Amino acid sequence: MGRVAAAHESIDTAAVKAQVIALTGRRGAGKTAIGQAVAVQLGWRFASFGDYIRSVARTRGRPESDVVLQDLGATFVERDPQGLVAGVLDTVSWKPGEPVVVDGIRHERILRLLEERVAPLPVVLVYVDVPEEQRLERLRQRGEPTDRDVEEHSTEEEVRTVLPKLAAFTVTGVGASTAAAGAIIDRLGRS
What we know:
Oligomer: single chain
Structural class: alpha/beta
Number of strands: 7
Strand content: 15-25%
Low-confidence stretches: 1-9
CATH architecture: 3-Layer(aba) Sandwich
Radius of gyration: 16 Å
CATH class: Alpha Beta
Shape: globular
Number of domains: 1
Strand order of the largest sheet: 4-5-3-6-7
Number of helices: 10
Distance between the termini: 18 Å
CATH topology: Rossmann fold
Order of helices and strands: EEEHEHHHEHEHHHHEH
Largest sheet: 5 strands, parallel
């Protein structure tokens, strides 16, 4: 590992101890890009709940629309939350004790199951925030819906209300994902 230049300062990636960095935030906040940048800078694996749900939808011959993916995710949370957590970690061949960056925490229950699954490694929840206008513009640019049915789906509820309060800290999704990644690494390196 070593030092990485980010946002006009040098960040000591070697100071970040093995742990699980879990990202949460609203759709279009920049979680995935930031999580991937953190994983690259630290040389850790990157697992994504969204990628896993999309792969399950493809396997089942289901369309990958936001509503279908949200419904499928909600079904996992209700019927097989432990299988969901295990499936996401299995996509990157995670082994106990290995650090990993996990993108897309949407429910406190899933966060708690992730904590159980990866123990004794600590899980640090990071909330990615972005101004609403910018978030909606990102969704429009990606061709993703911004209508009420999608924005108020049960999978979005805890992201708005519960998870920000559980987060160890918040980073901005505005600007370069590498800058936000650097801020996360810097913060964790000091803890």
